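Researcher: Structure prediction, please.
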Amino acid sequence: MDEIKENSTFKGIAERLTLGITRILESLPGVADVRFAEKEPAEKRSLLSWEQKNSCILPEDLRDFYLTADGFTLNWSVKLDNECVPLGCMTINSVSRLCPLLQPVSLFALPNAPSLVDLDWEENSAETGTGEAPAAPHFDSRSRIFELDSCGGNGKVCLVYKNCNPGVVAQQSEIWFLDRSLSWHFLTANFSSYYRLMITHLGLPEWRYAFTPYGPSPQAKQWASLYQPLTFRGEFSLTDTAGDSHFNKLDPAKAFRGKPKVSIPKKKQPAQCSIGSIVKSQGGTGKHTVAKR
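Model: Predicted structure follows.
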């Protein structure tokens, strides 16, 4: 009896943790094999150990998440020709896998080998950010970056602490996306907002590229228009060349008005002679000629 209560309690927690997304996915056409990995809560000492090791304070919402479940993994597939093809993936790394993006240089590395720090060789002109987006992180000691999700090799979602000083514990963090060209794109100011974004986008392929100037690939756009049409259409403007609109651009007035009629000039009929035509007599000799027109 106690075991049944524990199972029902855990299912209730899992339902709240996934925001009911599993039931929504199972109701979509063609979706199959929805799998949510159940994980135990993280221990408080592991969170404290992480903070001491990295000289960073975990944001309160992320701490509460880890105290509910040590990570998040939800995968789903679609049926194509009676085969299940993996499509959606939602992942939040566990505390043990919340590792720094910039690992210490190995002793076996080449002495003159370039690193990510070399990308910060010039000062960022948007050091304080702009009115539209905050300043981008740095790869050097000015920022402390930790990987939340590897995005299946299509980039990395990172927990970023900016304006860091050596020996000072960092407290303020943001969520950023690092694409494959090593360019930074701001996602959200806190973990809770990013978590809702991940659930809303159903973990579709390349959904984070919707927050970049160039957008997802054409194939990813097709999947998004199929399983997430409302959110997908709202993210791209009609004039945005980075995200092609899926609205119907056909103008029926132009397409179905038919071909314009071409007027064909009528051939002139040969002039007929009549009694009233111009007749000239020549010298009264009885000879007559018809005047040519």
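Model: The chain has a mean pLDDT of 77.
Researcher: Thanks, that helps.
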